[in-house]
Fold:
Amino acid sequence: MGCFDRVWARCPRCGGQVEFQTKGGPCESRDYDVYGLTRVKEGVDVLSGISQFAVCEKCDAKVEIVSHVHIDCVRMYEEPKKEKEDQ
Ligand SMILES: [Zn+2]
Structure:
């Protein structure tokens, strides 16, 4: 079995649920709703590894993710630490 989380969207043709798989999340077989999704959730960029295409199980339509660059915030840049620390 592959390791991924699921992002659910609505099929533009029939309104059915369409499953996109993403490897950007924690890979714990979690489910996310694409419409309520904050790009960075709990420090994980869920959409970074999302598949661009998916097929609706209901009507067989091939649907595509269309995303735009969106800046969530500007924060202090922190240099990567050399030693691993507990979070
Ligand atoms: Zn459909």
